[in-house]
Amino acid sequence: MSQQGYVAAPPYSQAQPGMGGYQGGFGAGPAQPLYGHYGGQPQAFTAPPTGIMKSPVSSAAGMPPPPLSSQYSPNIQQNGAHPQRYPAPPASSAYGQPAPSPYNSMASQAPPPTQQLTNQMSAMNMGNYAPGPMQSPPPPAMGQPPMPPGPQSPLMSPPQSPPATMAMGGPPMAGPSMAGPPMAGPPMAGPQMAGPPMAGMGRPFPGPPPPGPGGFQQPGPGAAGPLGYQQQAGPFGGPMTGPQPGMPGGFPGAPGGLAGPPQKKLDADSIPSITQVIGEDQERQGGQVYSTNVRGQVPPLVTTDFSVQDQGNASPRFMRCTTYTLPCTADLAKQCQVPLATIVKPFASLPKNETPLYVVNHGETGPIRCNRCKAYMCPYMQFIDGGRRFQCGFCNCVNEVPVHYFQHLDHMGRRVDFYERPELSLGSYEFAATLEYCKNNKTPNPPAYIFMIDVSYNNIKSGLVKLICEELKTLLENLPREEGTESSAIKVGFVTYNKILHFYNVKSALAQPQMMVVSDTAEMFVPLLDGFLVNYQESRAVIFNLLDQIPDMFADTSESETVFAPVIQAGVEAFKAAECSGKLFIFQSSMPTADAPGKLKNRDDKKLVNTEKEKTLFQPQKGVYEQLSKECVAQGCCVDLFLFPSQYVDLATMGDVPSHTGGSVYKYNNFQVETDGEHFLRDLRKDIQKSIGFDAVMRVRTSTGFRATDFFGAVYMNNTTDIEMAAVDCDKAVTVELKHDDTLSEESGALMQCALLYTTISGQRRLRVHNLSLNCSSQLMELYKSCETDSLINFFAKSAYRAILNQPLKNVREILVNQTAHMLACYRKNCANPSAASQLILPSAMKVLPVYMNSLMKSAPLVGSTELSTDERAHQRLSVMAMGVEDTQLLLYPRLIPLHNMDTSSEAPPAPVRCSEEGLTDAGMFLLENGHSMFLWLGQASPPDLIQSLFNVPSLSHLQGHMSSLPELDNPLSKKVRSIISEVQDKRPNSMKLQIVRQRDKPEMLFRQFLVEDKSLHGGASYMDFLTYVHREIRQLLT
């Protein structure tokens, strides 16, 4: 289909008007939109593809950068487009930068200029190479060489950063003026893209190599290219050494300098921008109602504000997919290498204007299921024989309808009670479970929360223990409760510990709490049954008494050693004795070094970074903790760990139990009550009040032809199908990889049913069911059209973060680059209109994938830098494994919001700008947040009145160092900024500590690591350089 995708014309590319033949500037050309359409047949280039038109958006095609996104977006289906834009690389970007000479040389290889020119031109259809519409509309103009008009978006062509350098070709090119050889080097030129079938490539392309562990493809022998990449300095990064081999001179094609007038610096606006993609989707679908009655429809982006009406498929808040059109055969899936996966967030919170899930109660008979595959009654079951039987949509088995469930069919073959039964008409609903779905066939007890406080010297001295005890008095009033009940059914218990454990009897009949001590940590047991887990409302007075006494009891302690595994063991034993599930809240200050099971030693070794053994830093220590995870899951005991370290604590091991039990790890380095107290308390409040289910097991069923093969999340897998979670809350998501085991039919599509069996906070056993139907197609174009970039990057992040446990980081990064290049090359080869090799053509739905992918490669776990703390890297790895799509999207592309020129009277917050230094201004003020960190950046030339309004000091130089909140001042700017910050804090699952940084101050370095479109301090390419590199890889695959 011509669809073309996004073509970026490179900055350089922008020919100056009149250059070389190209019509004046891109713009001029035909403006067809080409981009859009996704589906049509590929057409020859010239003609603007028909279908393509779909999205006229394309600003004139090539326009320099129209907002890139736009073009795509339409087709993109928003989906892919992730919002993130890519920043332009600094000019000098790494990739691009190599020394000119090399480039030239390479370039020269290319066919003689003239020839190229011609080739190109012709290809191009010539036309406007420049920013114009690119003929067809190649979209944004990154592209280098003249893009063929085809619909592609010539994205990248040569974006090289410094354009000049990049221009790549140097003299040689010049001649031909723009046309520069196609990027690829001669070969490409001729045949133009068409290039040999991919397959030949040495790379895995054609068929991906067998996946290695963790779902990651192992690099095939061929994979050399990437290697090159790695060589660079940093992971991705640093400047590449010279033009690397294949890179024909960078991009030879790059328009050779476009020959003509000197080029301007590469313009970041010509490459796809996430902020633009996000903004366009919000404009198109924001505020609208998304109805789920169409199979395989691509939902709005996660960043878009929309409401959902369930009409037979689960809301995208519960399930999102990497693509909403599956390839019909395994061969097609192998050819395109687009991962097929669904990200399930079974407990996602719904906005107030959406209906909560209905609970269906079939009494003692329980839910109606298929006899063969055990799928639950849902909209995909077809009633036949007058309503007496139903055919299962998953396995096609014909089942008898139980007498009590019988209903007549109407003239369309639908049951007369269709709209009265949620399980027949909705995508998501719940069933009340019967005793056969309960442990030991008896009704479960309500869950319990146990607060386990480390009272060693560090926590007492910092004031943490007192802070926790004070906060619990109010927090316990807000324990989660079922809708419509007066008080929470959750029981509570309290333990304090250092080297030994202290249990407290807080039975309501007592005047004073009683303490029982267990000093034998090797054989942990709970010394009291009655009075340990109590109803908070009944024992309130005794509990208050206890919370007042704890800080004083240990005020003079000098004990600095702690235990950890026995603390978890004690919690599990308490739940066993009470026959309930629940959650442990553990507040721990340091690594457990006391002599007891689970004792840890410092194994942090920076010498392992960038070696084959680096993976050991992420692997938990085996033994005690593995066994504990298993016991916790069996009992439904979830562990939430709050860490307050002042040095290395082996977070990879300490976080192992939380990460297998549906728990979370929170970390506050060098905790101080004044600056970190509020940040920690916000996390604790959110954590305790989350909607949550316990003792859960989930299974994903699919229709014939494909199945769920791999699962990523804070879960425990005892076998290959049951996903066990001691608890599952509203922020936890499981990413499920899907594989073919037969051919899928375009007619019947592909169906999935995710069933979660769990215990509610009031002790009821329920089944929550989410159903989703996808399209199937034998046309790759359809698959690319309905991809969702945000979901793809969630899958890539989780599979890469799992892979680093058993492969060197260098291999994992290579695999990511290879797979990115393969997906895009397959699109170019099979779906895009033919065009000059030097154009980078991206599918609309994936046009911002390179931004996210580059950001992922620069993330702490994947960067081999000795400057990053091992615990920090392990923490991010564990956090991401449990994240849903919106959280990984924000983490990998932070929001950068300008606050200095906003309208304080408007309701809406200002629109974010690209996450790059180029967006900052000396007189500006920006808020940056990624869900875990938040910065308020102040330019050195900030106007004094702005500083006065916000901080109540006359100028920037009067600002105090460690402020973590803004003073409450009575003026419109202060109120607006504080309301934006608190709105952001409320929306995110985690609390973020506000860090105020001034331009050019030392702390600003920390802030700059989050400008993901720029080169990274720890060795990572800028977006532009990465794009250039990927373009080179794509060209190699195609030749």
Task: Give a structural overview.
- With 1039 residues, this protein is α/β, with parallel strands linked by helices.
- 27% of the residues lie in helices and 15% in strands.
- It has 29 helices and 31 strands.
- Residues 9-266 have low confidence and may be disordered.
- Its main location: cytoplasm.
- Pfam families: Gelsolin, Sec23_BS, Sec23_helical, Sec23_trunk, zf-Sec23_Sec24.
- Residues 367-405 form the Zinc finger Sec23/Sec24-type domain.
SSE blueprint and pairings:
Layout: E1 6-8, H1 25-28, H2 68-76, H3 100-109, H4 113-124, H5 163-166, H6 170-174, H7 186-189, H8 224-231, H9 274-285, E2 289-291, E3 307-309, E4 319-321, E5 325-327, H10 330-336, E6 341-344, E7 359-360, E8 382-384, E9 389-391, E10 398-400, H11 422-425, E11 428-432, E12 448-454, H12 457-461, H13 464-475, E13 491-497, E14 501-505, E15 514-518, E16 534-535, H14 540-553, H15 565-578, E17 582-588, H16 624-635, E18 637-643, H17 651-654, H18 656-660, E19 665-667, H19 673-689, E20 692-702, E21 706-712, E22 716-717, E23 723-729, E24 734-740, E25 750-759, E26 765-777, H20 780-785, H21 789-803, H22 809-830, E27 840-842, H23 849-857, H24 870-881, H25 885-892, E28 895-898, E29 925-929, E30 934-938, H26 944-951, H27 972-987, E31 994-998, H28 1004-1008, H29 1023-1038
Parallel strand pairs: 2-3, 5-26, 7-11, 12-13, 12-17, 17-18, 18-19, 30-31
Antiparallel strand pairs: 1-27, 4-6, 6-24, 8-9, 9-10, 11-26, 13-14, 13-16, 14-15, 20-23, 20-25, 21-24, 22-23, 25-26, 28-29, 29-30
Helix pairs in contact: 2-9, 8-22, 13-14, 13-19, 15-16, 21-23, 21-24, 21-25, 22-23, 22-29, 23-29, 26-27
